[in-house]
Amino acid sequence: MDKDLVVSGQNFDDVLAIISGARLRVAKAVNAELINMYWEIGSYVSQRVKNMGWGRSVVADFSAFLQKHDPSF
Hints:
The chain is mostly helical. It contains 2 helices and no strands. It has one domain.
């Protein structure tokens, strides 16, 4: 009872559209989370600068800390 499967270019275009839509939604979600992360980091550092006297060396110090504790950054 074999049936020939009829698949047209339109069928593949439909599947490609589904994949493309999903990729776009994923990219938007990732970008939104990155923006939230940057905002949170900025707020954290800003409060420390204001209340604890953090200065110019913070970025260099944090860079050294990251390289030591998580080289993947």
